[in-house]
Design brief:
By secondary structure, the protein is of the alpha+beta class. The chain has one domain. It has four helices and three strands; from the N terminus they run αβαβααβ. The chain is elongated and about 45 Å long. It starts with 8 loop residues before the first helix and ends with a strand. The structure holds zinc ion. Zinc ion binds next to helix 3.
Length: about 80
């Protein structure tokens, strides 16, 4: 794990469980039949990856507001123990 700030032993224990934002195509549009799933550390990063996928795989240049809202609502926070 890359961290620029020194942490105490206590903080390291807490940091061992890492939270990720997760979103899948099926969560937004099940009818698309796309099993793409993405995980990122921040929501901003997540939506960057989602936008890239939408562009390349679904030919969507920019997410319509309605779809973006649906995607945002579908974001799950998962905890991964490192
Ligand atoms: Zn997809």
């Amino acid at each position: 794990m890359v961290s620029s700030t020194p942490t105490t032993e206590e903080e390291k224990k807490i940091m061992a469980a890492k939270e990720y934002k997760q979103l899948g195509c099926l969560d937004v549009d099940a009818s698309a039949g796309c099993a793409f799933q993405v995980r990122a550390e921040t929501e901003a990063e997540l939506f960057q990856l989602v936008a890239m996928h939408a562009k390349h795989s679904h030919k969507i240049d920019s997410l319509p507001p309605e779809m973006a809202a649906k995607a945002k609502a579908a974001v799950k926070t998962v905890t991964v123990t490192v």
